[in-house]
Specification:
With about 150 residues, this protein is mainly alpha-helical. It has a domain of about 100 residues. Helix content is about 55%, strand content about 0%. Helix 2 crosses helix 3 and helix 2 packs parallel to helix 4. The chain is elongated.
Length: about 150
């Protein structure tokens, strides 16, 4: 189930945001894990809004969700390693909010084998040129209608 835990580890956070953090220090480790858990909830809520919590995730989503989880945790925490300014934090939060909106609306589809809401689709209305064809269209409509 994709919506049950965080998508990144403290080691992932350290390698992307704060190389050199002392992950052997239990206080530092606990703080990072807390923010990763809090940030994962934002991702879970976006996924739940578009019913993506019960599917198998596409292969590419692993790194994408890890990135969202780490950047959201760093923005919530105020990541001391990056000397995050208010403008930087606002930019990250705006980008994250946009990503969550794209997930919620299905424009980014995380489930394997699915397509997003903006994937091109085409259908054609059946046309009848003969009486026989009209009967066939009506018959097909009847058997497809529950």
């Amino acid at each position: 189930m994709p919506c049950t835990s965080r998508f990144a580890t403290a080691a992932d956070y350290e390698s992307m945001m704060c190389i050199g953090l002392d992950l052997t220090d239990p206080v530092v480790l606990a703080e990072i894990e807390l923010y990763l858990d809090l940030a994962a909830a934002d991702i879970h809520s976006a996924m739940a809004a578009s019913d993506m919590c019960s599917c198998s995730l596409a292969a590419w989503t692993t790194n994408y969700l890890k990135k969202l989880n780490i950047l959201d945790a760093a923005a919530i925490q105020g990541c001391p390693c990056t000397n995050m300014t208010a403008e930087m934090k606002a930019a990250w939060l705006a980008w994250l909010d946009n990503q969550f909106m794209l997930i919620r609306t299905g424009k980014i589809e995380l489930c394997a084998g699915e397509t997003g809401s903006e994937f091109p689709a085409f259908a054609d209305v059946p046309r009848s040129w003969t009486d026989w064809n009209t009967a066939e269209i009506m018959y097909q409509t009847l058997i497809k209608t529950p």
